[in-house]
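Quick entry, no commentary yet.
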Amino acid sequence: MTDSQNLLLRESHFAFGENWARYATSVGEAQIQEATVALQRLVGDSLNGKTFLDIGCGSGIHALAAIRLGASAVLAVDIDADSAATARRMLEMHAPGARWQVREVSVFDLGPATVGLFDVVYSWGVLHHTGAMHRALRAAAALVGPGGQFVFALYRRTPLCWFWKIEKRWYAGASQAAQARARSLYVGLFRIVYPIKNRGSFSNYVATYRQSRGMDFYHDVHDWLGGWPYESISPAEADRLMQQLGLRQIRVFLVAGRATGLLGSGNDEYVYERV
């Protein structure tokens, strides 16, 4: 088996699900509301009557947000068993009467013949961790129905992506003690660089971080440092691929400023529509 084939296997991936399971224990109504607002920013005013597919559902908070925005049916999928279990608990607790399913499955095993087409296919910060990002984008886009939307976020390509690829591969296989030291080093560097680069307070950034997607800064640090496999893409390359797949751009939210990659890649957010 080749290295590229190995990267498609769950066993070669960072344990994202363990991180999401820990994060989910801190989720309350405030985080759910913030996640709902963040999703609404991407998909528009509501999802009333629309079917919604969440690829790489993680904690399940954004599948829940889709239900809050009126989605008629939600399918949440993740290759990670811990993520699928966490998402299932999240929806059982907060959306017991809604129409939803959670499945442990890879994006590469989804297809119109098996799961159908959806009004909204959503995958935030996931497809660059599949081991075959372009193939994953094609697979996800194939599930967007006529007039439907493909909503996704991907790491911006930076001059330091080569370094982060090495770091993530190491971190994913490191001991918990080594990972903790790496997180302390990264947060210390972030604490120094952020005020210089952004002319803002690090403590204020951490305090307001949750408002961006209902997420937690320190859980996301672990997620960032361990995010293996790792790929990145430029907005221009993403747009060319989407056009080839018969999708047109509705809106984008790009990483602000020049993406150097010093503290990470950052995610560009894209919304495309099936023509």
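second:
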Amino acid sequence: MIGEIPLFVAGSLCINSAFLALWFLVYVCIYIPVVMHFEERDLAKRFGPAYEAYRRKTGAILPRLR
């Protein structure tokens, strides 16, 4: 999902629409956290404690550097 952000922004700038680029950025900033919330909840139900352990060790958007 995050990899698509530059694609949408670049596409909107290629058609010379700054408004569309701004709209995509705002839309994605709202859309991604909502989708992440529901996806995390579904994965926790589906995989249980194994997923909870995995989630504690990894970052949600960016990898944790330890």
